[in-house]
């Protein structure tokens, strides 16, 4: 039974109720600078007025804080533009803030006269493309790094704190940077209450859950530092790869089989391998090594959109939706 995230649709009105424009008092606007800890470093920011964001969830953090008027534009892929953006509780903001392109580049942010770029490692920042915080600093452009994607000092691995803590950290940091601390704290409090309510739905044993993002030869999934860790855990399940000190990472199918997931959570976005949830499920059900996996035998699948499974203001609603599924299945 492939279930669409209907609970998320029902919660759209609640999300929109918190998406009104933030009032930035004149004293805060004139204050000039704010210092926050971003990815383990103390960074001082002049108050930005022309922000460029990369990716859906990152952009929605700005919109949830009512900061659309502080943005020069955003970049998202074409698939996100027709999928996550179209279904976003903040689609009106996506419509009025310029869509600058599919990929963020130095030339693009310079052309937008950006004074801050909000992105993350593998969410725009990349040594291979030369688009890095250091490269932008040389151009006089400040950067804020998504906390979910902070590198943790072990190779290319990412994530330095539990996923929901990363979400709340970024909301509070952005609140300080833009002078909307009260707005940020109200959002955090509301999200914490929503997660607590979802946890009251949890009952019985905790099923083992495999987050399937993409990949045919090898699956791409979530370790303990990416949003699915808390989406799964707070909803009453156990992420079978929660022992991996990374955010998004590649594993082997043998490990999936060995860990015998009882539920499979599918990430719904166009990924170049199997673009729809139905295609992903069809692949999983037809892949011979998985035939004896409990989730496959019992046909226990659930779908959430990409923007609910990366760090974003959709995470609490995703937890509630998945908790309802697990409680009712």
TrEMBL record:
Q: Which region is the signal sequence?
A: 1-22
In this chain the Fe/B12 periplasmic-binding domain maps to 50-329
State the UniProt keywords alphabetically. Answer: Signal
Which InterPro entries did the record assign? ABC_Transporter_SBP (IPR050902), ABC_transptr_periplasmic_BD (IPR002491)
Q: Which domain of life is it from?
A: Bacteria
The question of whether Signal is a record keyword is answered with yes
The question of whether Signal is a record keyword is answered with: yes
UniProt similarity note: Belongs to the bacterial solute-binding protein 8 family.
Could you tell me what this protein is called? ABC transporter substrate-binding protein
Which lineage is the organism of this entry classified under, starting from the top rank? Bacteria, Bacillati, Actinomycetota, Actinomycetes, Pseudonocardiales
């Amino acid at each position: 039974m492939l279930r669409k995230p209907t609970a998320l649709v029902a919660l759209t009105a609640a999300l929109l109720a918190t998406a009104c424009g933030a009032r930035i008092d004149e004293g805060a606007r004139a204050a000039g600078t704010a210092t926050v800890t971003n990815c383990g470093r103390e960074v001082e920011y002049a108050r930005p007025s022309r922000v460029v964001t990369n990716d859906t969830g990152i952009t929605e953090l700005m919109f949830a804080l009512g900061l659309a008027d502080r943005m020069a534009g955003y970049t998202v892929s074409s698939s996100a533009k027709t999928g996550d953006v179209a279904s976003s509780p903040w689609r009106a903001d996506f419509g009025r803030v310029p869509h600058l392109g599919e990929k963020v580049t130095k030339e693009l942010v310079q052309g937008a006269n950006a004074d801050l770029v909000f992105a993350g490692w593998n969410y725009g920042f990349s040594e291979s493309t030369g688009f890095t915080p250091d490269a932008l600093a040389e151009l006089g452009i400040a950067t804020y790094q998504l906390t979910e994607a902070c590198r943790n000092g072990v190779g290319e691995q990412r994530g330095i704190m539990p996923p929901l803590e990363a979400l709340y950290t970024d909301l509070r940091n952005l609140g300080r940077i833009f002078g909307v601390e009260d707005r940020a704290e109200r959002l955090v409090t509301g999200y914490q209450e929503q997660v607590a309510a979802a946890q009251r739905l949890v009952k019985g044993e905790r099923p083992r859950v495999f987050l399937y993002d993409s990949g045919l030869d090898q699956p791409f999934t979530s370790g303990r530092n990416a949003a699915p860790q808390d989406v799964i855990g707070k909803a009453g399940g156990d992420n079978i790869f929660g022992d991996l000190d990374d955010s998004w990472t590649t594993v082997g199918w043998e490990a999936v089989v060995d860990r015998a997931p009882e539920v499979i959570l599918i990430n719904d976005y166009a990924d170049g391998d199997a673009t729809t949830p139905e295609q992903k499920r069809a692949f999983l059900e037809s892949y011979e090594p998985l035939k004896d996996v409990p989730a496959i035998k019992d046909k226990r699948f659930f779908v959430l959109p990409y923007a609910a499974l990366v760090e974003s203001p959709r995470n609490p609603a995703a937890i509630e939706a998945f908790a309802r599924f697990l409680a009712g299945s």
